[in-house]
């Protein structure tokens, strides 16, 4: 299990900077830097979601982090091996906000 700090306050799964899911997926299989990664489980807080999808969950400080970023140092068989990761927001070229895995490190294999 990985300790997760989530700085994505706009996510419906975020409670007190912790995720309320049992696991997440970090996406961006061909990423070469953190800005190309993303949290595949992001749910925009401003959108309507089924009441039971997130409202009844408790924050989870340590959870399974699945990873499809093939060249990340911490990717071991599609699971994150980092002790602690941070998911944060970043701006892309058009000013749109998106999520990213700030812990991403390129694997020098």
- Please describe the biggest sheet, giving its number of strands, its sense, and whether it closes into a barrel: 6 strands, mixed
Strand content: 35-45%
Number of strands: 10
Low-confidence stretches: none
Continuous helix count: 1
Shape: globular
Output the helix-strand order: EEEEEHEEEEE
What does the radius of gyration come to? 14 Å
Short synopsis of the structure:
This protein is mainly beta and 109 residues long. Helices cover 4% and strands 36% of the residues.
Notable features of this structure?
mainly beta, single chain, six-stranded mixed β-sheet
Give a structural overview.
4% of the residues lie in helices and 36% in strands. A hairpin with a 2-residue loop joins strand 2 (14-15) and strand 3 (18-19). With 109 residues, it is mainly β. The chain has one helix spanning 51-54, and strands at residues 2-6, 14-15, 18-19, 23-27, 38-39, 62-67, 75-76, 79-80, 84-91, 97-101. The strands form three sheets. A six-stranded mixed β-sheet has the order 5-4-6-1-9-10, with no helix packed on it. The chain is globular and about 40 Å long. The longest helix has 4 residues, at 51-54. The two termini are 24 Å apart. The model has no long low-confidence stretch (mean pLDDT 89).
Topology:
Layout: E1 2-6, E2 14-15, E3 18-19, E4 23-27, E5 38-39, H1 51-54, E6 62-67, E7 75-76, E8 79-80, E9 84-91, E10 97-101
Parallel strand pairs: 1-9, 4-6
Antiparallel strand pairs: 1-6, 2-3, 4-5, 7-8, 9-10
